[in-house]
Amino acid sequence: MIIETNSPLPRHPKPIILIGAGGIVNDAHLPAYKLAGFWVAGIYDTDREKALRTAERFDIPLVYLTPQDMLDRSPRSVIFDVAVPGSQILPVLQQLPDGAHVLFQKPMGDDLAMAREILDHTRSHRLTAGVNFQLRYAPFINAARHILAQGLIGDLVDIEVNVNVYTPWHLWKFLYSLPRVEILYHSIHYIDLVRTFFGNPESIYAKTVQHPGMPELASVRTSIIMDYGPMIRTNILTNHSHDFGLQQQHSYIKLEGTRGAIKIRLGVLMNYPHGVPDSFEYCVVENGKPREWRTLEIAGSWFPHAFIGSMSQLMLAAEGSIERPDNSVEDAIYTMACVEAAYESSAQGGIRPNF
Ligand SMILES: NC(=O)c1ccc[n+]([C@@H]2O[C@H](COP(=O)([O-])OP(=O)(O)OC[C@H]3O[C@@H](n4cnc5c(N)ncnc54)[C@H](O)[C@@H]3O)[C@@H](O)[C@H]2O)c1
Fold first, then answer.
1. What confidence tier does 339 reach under pLDDT thresholds 50, 70, 90?
2. What's the start-to-end Cα distance of the chain, in Å?
3. Per-domain residue ranges for the chain?
4. DSSP string covering 275-315
5. Residue 202 pLDDT
C-alpha cells in the first residue's frame, strides 16, 4: 500500500521575503525551505544583529535596514513570510503593499478581537494571507488523511490529542508577559487540526491552569473538549509540567474510526529540545482476523517539514493553481474563535454540583 505523505507543491515557487529572524525562522522556516528548494531573497528584523546572523547562516543575500528598504529592494512578485509575536502581526501587515501574498505565524493576534482587525485589514487591502498552522501539513497528518480518504478505518468518530511532557518555556521569553499562553500558543495547533477533520464545533468546554513550578506563566496545562454532538468525541489534553524524566512522558494524536485507528507519536515535544523519534501506527479491522497494529515509516515530521506545506499553500495561490490558501485567514479566524471560546469556557467554570 502506498500512502501519500507529501503536501501539494507549487510548480513555480516565488521568492520569499522573511520578516522576523527569531527562533522559529532559524529552527523551522529556513531548514524547511532549504529542503523544498524555495529561495529566500531577503530578511528584515527590527533586531538587525539577528537578521545578519540568520542571513549569514542560511546564505540570504539581502538584509534590509527598514521596512521601506525591504519594499524598495524586493523582487516584484514575492511571498512575505512574517514570524513575529502575535501583537506585531497587524503593524507588520500595515507595512505591506496592497495585493501582497503573505504567510504569517500563528497565533492570528492576541485574541479574537485582534484577529478580526487582522482579517479586516487583509480584506480591505486585498492581501492573500495565510496563517502558519503547519501541523495540518505534517507528513504523518497527510498519511492519516490518505488512510481516511481510502476508507481504511471507516468513519472518523474520535480524536484525542494527549501531551504529557516537560516544556522549557523559558526559551520563549515573550510569553512571560502575556495574559494567554497555553491555548493561544500551543493547543491552538490541535484545535486547528481537529477543525480540519470535523469542521467547526457546536461548542467548546475548556479549563486551562497554571502550575506552581511556573507561576509567572498564565497557564501551562489545559483540557479542551470540542463538541460535535452525540457521536463524536474530541479531547485535547496538555500538561507541559511533567518534570519527572522521560519515562512517563507521552505526546500523541489518536484518530479512531468505525473500522480502525491511527496513533501518531509527536516525538518533537518529548525530552525537549532533543526530542525522540515520531511513530505512526495503525490498525485496520479485517473481518474474522485478530486486531493487528502495523507501523508505517514516515519521512519527515511536524518540524521542519510541515512548514513546506503551509508556505506551498501561499505559493499555489500566488501562481493561480488554487483560488485561496487552505490556511487562509478566512479559515483561521474560526480557529481563533474556538480559542476565544476555550478561554471564555475556562473563565466561566463548570456546573457546580448540588451538594
Ligand atoms: N507554527 C509553529 O509551530 C510555531 C513555533 C514557534 C513559534 N511560532 C510563532 O512564531 C512567532 C515568533 O516566535 P519565535 O520563537 O521565533 O520568537 P523570537 O522572539 O525568537 O523571534 C521573533 C522575532 O521577531 C522580531 N520582531 C518583533 N517585532 C518585529 C517587527 N515589528 N518587525 C520585524 N521583526 C520583528 C524580533 O526582533 C525577533 O527576532 C510567535 O508568534 C510564535 O507563536 C510558531
1. very high
2. 56
3. 16-133+306-324, 136-295
4. ----EEEEEE--TTS---EEE---S--TTTTHHHHHHHHHH
5. 98
CATH C-level class of 16-133+306-324: alpha beta
Identical fold, 16-133+306-324 and 136-295: no
Ligand 1 centroid distance, CA of 28 (Å): 12
Candidate from 30, 43, 53, 105 with most ligand 1 atoms within 8 A of CB, to mutate: 105
Confidence of residue 1 (pLDDT cuts 50, 70, 90): confident
For the CA of 134, the closest atom of ligand 1 is 1
The three cell numbers of residue 99 are 495585493
Q: Which of 18, 45, 111 to mutate to test the pocket of ligand 1 (most atoms within 8 A of CB)?
A: 45
Fold held by 136-295: Dihydrodipicolinate Reductase; domain 2 (3.30.360)
Q: Name, in order, each residue with C-beta under 8 angstroms of 189's C-beta and a sequence gap of 6 or more.
A: 106, 133, 135
Question: Using a 6 Å cutoff on CB, does residue 24 contact ligand 1?
Answer: yes
pLDDT tens by residue, 256-300: 999 999 999 999 999 998 999 999 999 999 999 999 999 999 999
In this predicted structure, the answer to whether residue 350 has a pLDDT above a threshold of 80 is yes
Nearest CA to 13 out of 75, 57, 83 is that of 75
Q: Whose CA is nearest to atom 30 of ligand 1?
A: 46
Of all protein residues, whose CA lies closest to atom 19 belonging to ligand 1? 22
pLDDT in tens, 148-185: 999 999 999 999 999 999 999 888 888 888 999 999 99
